[in-house]
Specification:
Layout (H helix, E strand, L loop, with lengths): L1 H64 L2 H18 L2 H11 L2 H6 L1 H16 L4 H20 L2 E3 L2 E3 L1 H10 L3 H12 L1 H22 L5 H8 L4 H34 L28 H7 L3 H11 L5 H6 L13 E4 L6 E4 L6 H15 L19 H12 L5 H6 L7 H35 L5 H13 L17 H4 L5 H20 L13 H12 L7 H9 L6 H7 L1
Antiparallel strand pairs: 1-2, 3-4
Helix pairs in contact: 1-2, 1-5, 2-6, 3-5, 6-9, 7-8, 9-10, 11-18, 13-15, 15-16, 16-21, 18-19, 18-21, 21-24
């Protein structure tokens, strides 16, 4: 027994030595993995950080001027940036690290940076010449949009002028001509857009994806099935309520234009895409802004300062008013993730531009302006495009509250009348926008699945099904190509609607914190709102994915529950 026991002891020592050696080797290997990952992150930052800033500035300049040389510089820098990421050897290294479960467990923050790099480098593995073709084509189409102006007879209209006409004109023929003229940009860009769609699909196939739509969702940590299920749920949630609201809107519009509801056409809905609610509730919010000649920039600055998130420096660096050649749209851009954040606007004193201002500066505060510098450079951005869109949408909803306007120093003659009308407007907007995003999401999904189908017919089939608008008799035009997002932000639009869900969920959380009902909470002059956003939305940056951030901020994953409550 002693000999046997002694043998077991010797065997145990031997096994222990092997285990210790394996542990040491594993530890050395893990240390090597961590050092390897850190060097990859450092090399990437060193190579692209300055170039990303240059590319951001070039895009800004091109958006302001519309000049060929500025757009050419933008494309050149984007190609250089893509070329830096088009590194197959490094992509293979990043893949290996991403698939190493022990490495991910040991250093989650570093692993998250590798995850972000994985998607960035995967997208850049597209053939360099093909990528240049896509950049050139997209750039050319964007420039066409920037310089296009609708023309009716001898008169040329800006986007703001078309918007004003569709809001105010009672002449159906005049409205039709203006609507058709605005839609004329579709014919200008159609061929190039279809070429771009095929190029994008070619790129997706080269990376193993069935089409570009599926690829874009995957690169943004989503999948088609996940989003489609959510949109099916939203369709069921909104269909009957939308039908009810649209019937009321149609009745009021028909009365305004002295026609039957069945005779209403797309140009009667005051918005080129029927993505916003027409002003039909016997209340025109624009009169408040026009009467008081509201300074939208000043009001925007005062509001964000009142919640502890000053934006004076961003306002100073932004471009806020119309000028020739300038993009007629609105956007926010973070130039360098170091605090150089800028907003492009085309202000007019009305509710639309107040809404847009709160939206874009909502993006601005959710940027390197307020994401802590302690967050690594690669993660110093929003958790996801839907979370920044959601925050921006949450802020833009404030324009519908008389209490918010009054707290911001804008007199409201009849607050009760305004609130009654605006509550109906707000519900209508949420429903109308939700149905509009159904059209865009499903159209882009189908277009990339089969770009050779009759896209004009597909567009109007979806418009009629989800928005209840009629296709004008005999019209066979590329109206799908008139939405700039299809070009410059492809397969992105569903994030706006998911952002609406995020907005409702965060708003309900804030209202609870303020001990107010969601219907009454307006944030103004409450710095604790800004502190909540700093702590729960901004502080993590992109260290969490979109659904984990939603849970971190609100205590639950993204759902339709609070959005449904807002509709009620």
């Amino acid at each position: 027994m002693a000999a046997i026991k002694s043998g077991f002891i010797r065997k145990g020592i031997f096994v222990s030595i092997i285990s210790l050696s394996a542990s040491l080797l594993w530890g050395q290997n893990l240390t090597h993995q961590i050092e390897w990952a850190r060097s990859i992150v450092a090399d990437h930052e060193r190579e692209v950080r300055g170039l990303q800033r240059e590319a951001g500035l070039a895009w800004w300049d091109a958006s302001l001027s519309g000049k060929d040389e500025d757009f050419a510089k933008k494309v050149r820098l984007q190609n250089q940036l893509d070329a830096r990421l088009h590194n197959a050897a490094r992509y293979t290294e990043i893949q290996a690290l991403r698939n190493d479960s022990e490495f991910r467990r040991q250093d989650p923050l570093l692993a998250r940076q590798i995850e972000v790099l994985y998607y960035a480098y995967q997208a850049a593995q597209i053939d360099a010449d093909l990528n240049k073709q896509m950049n050139a084509k997209s750039n050319a189409i964007e420039q066409m949009f920037n310089v296009y102006r609708a023309k009716v007879g001898d008169k040329t209209y800006t986007s703001n002028e078309i918007s004003d006409l569709l809001k105010n004109s009672l002449n159906s023929e005049e409205r039709k001509l203006a609507w058709e003229a605005s839609k004329g940009v579709g014919a200008v860009v159609e061929k190039d857009l279809l070429d771009l769609v095929h190029l994008r699909n070619q790129a997706a196939h080269s990376l193993g994806y069935p089409n570009f739509h599926a690829m874009q969702l995957a690169l943004n940590e989503q999948n088609s099935g996940q989003v489609l299920q959510l949109f099916d749920e939203l369709d069921d949630l909104t269909r009957d309520q939308f039908t009810e609201v649209k019937a009321e809107i149609d009745a009021k519009l028909a009365q305004r234009f002295h026609i039957s509801p069945n005779a209403l056409m797309p140009w009667h809905y005051q918005d080129l895409f029927f993505q916003e609610a027409p002003a039909v509730y016997d209340y025109n919010p624009d009169t408040i802004y026009e009467k008081e000649n509201v300074d939208l920039a000043d009001m925007t600055g005062r509001f964000y300062k009142s919640i502890g998130l000053p934006v004076d420096d961003i306002l100073k660096n932004s471009s806020l008013y119309e000028q020739p050649g300038k993009s007629p749209h609105a956007f926010c851009t973070d130039i360098d993730r170091e605090g150089d954040v800028r907003v492009l606007m085309n202000y007019k004193p009305n509710q639309y531009w107040m809404n847009t201002s709160l939206h874009e500066f909502g993006h601005a505060v959710y940027s390197s302006k307020y994401i802590p510098r302690t967050v690594p450079y690669l993660l110093r951005s929003e958790a996801h495009i839907l979370t920044t869109e959601g925050l921006a949408m949450m802020f833009q909803r404030l324009v519908h509250k008389s209490s918010w306007l009054q707290k911001m120093g804008v007199p409201v003659a009849d607050p009760k009348r305004m609130d009654k009308a605006e509550k109906k407007m707000m519900r209508a907007e949420l429903l109308i926008f939700s149905r509009w995003t159904q059209v865009i999401f499903r159209f882009e999904k189908s277009m990339y699945e089969n770009p050779d189908q009759d896209l004009n017919a597909l567009w109007w089939q979806l418009v009629e099904k989800y928005q209840g608008m009629k296709q004008p008799a005999g019209r066979n035009a590329p109206d799908y190509a008139t939405k700039i997002h299809v070009v410059v932000a492809p397969c992105y639009y569903h994030n706006y609607e998911m952002g609406e869900l995020f907005a409702s969920q965060v708003h309900h959380t804030i209202a609870k914190m303020l001990h107010q009902s969601p219907a009454k909470a307006d944030y103004a002059n409450q710095p604790q709102v800004g502190q909540f956003l700093r702590d729960k939305i901004f502080a993590p940056g992109a260290t969490l994915n979109w659904n984990e951030l939603t849970k971190f901020a609100t205590g639950k994953y993204l759902s339709t529950k609070d959005f449904a409550a807002d509709l009620r």
